[in-house]
Specification:
Layout (H helix, E strand, L loop, with lengths): L2 H14 L2 H8 L3 H15 L4 E3 L4 E3 L1 H27 L5 E7 L4 H14 L3 E7 L6 H4 L3 E4 L9 E8 L1 E5 L1 H6 L14 E4 L7 E5 L5 E5 L5 E2 L2 H9 L4 E5 H10 L3 E2 L5 E2 L2 E7 L7 H15 L2 H4 L9
Parallel strand pairs: 3-4, 3-5, 8-11, 8-12
Antiparallel strand pairs: 1-2, 5-15, 6-15, 7-12, 7-13, 9-10, 9-14
Helix pairs in contact: 1-2, 1-3, 1-4, 2-3, 5-10
Amino acid sequence: MDRLTSLTVFGRVVECGGFSAAARRLSMSVTMVSNHIQSLEDHLGARLLNRTTRKVSLTEIGKDYHARSMQILADLDEADRVATARNTSPVGTLRLYTSTHMVRFLSPVVAEFLTLYPAVSVDLRIGEQMVDMIEEGFDLAIRTIPLPDSSLIVRRLTPWRHILSCAPAYLKTHAAPMTLADLSQHNCLRYSLYPFGDDWTFDGPDGKPVSVRVAGNIVGNSGETLRFLALNGQGVLLAPSFMIADDVASGRLVRLLPEYRPVLFAINAIYPHRHHLSVKVRSFLDLLSQRFAEHRKWMDPEMSPEAT
């Protein structure tokens, strides 16, 4: 029989002074009450209660066992109370993982979340490679590139596209590419975590996918480093719209081959489990989804029909 139930029954028998009264309190048959007590005594190999036709009383062993078992049940009730409270109002530490270029978007959401829920603290870690969320204890990851096949849960926040560009200084010494194939003759600044490797992939003017194999004198996993090199005229850059949209708008970077649209990606929130998601994670996810929805037109300036 379930020992926790048996402990509860044992406590009620002692409290009520008999099997019948305990049975009425527990909405249980007297036989079932008796079976629970017998199960405990069989498990312990000791008698807990002295039984007479008129009343029951604790044995010496029963007194010690009753005191300890009631403390166990009280501790369990307290643990349930704490867990329930944690699942109705956000508390505790929220562990987040994201990439460097997401920090500028994530930081205002974190600040707002901490203001809304002062009982929560945030542990934010930054890296380019995806981590083992379960092994390292992260509640949530915010990523901009697709995951390999995984059992992790993915919630799409907002779509985004790359922008193909270079600095005006680069065009002073290199002819602007007129076709996608021309990119193979240019110094292309390559992001090592780009999902298609060195095959930069687009939707062509006819809507069909098309790609070109590129090369260059640098490949790295720091988007900001590649952006810095592009701004200094070092090469052609395929970078997320949310990273360089301001540079393009100001003229620091020049958009190339606009008739070729980089493929659509999404910024995703990733978490280990769908069921029994803690309230702190649910609350942050909801706030994150609202705030990132406000960025959608900026994330993908062209906003294709499938993005909306």
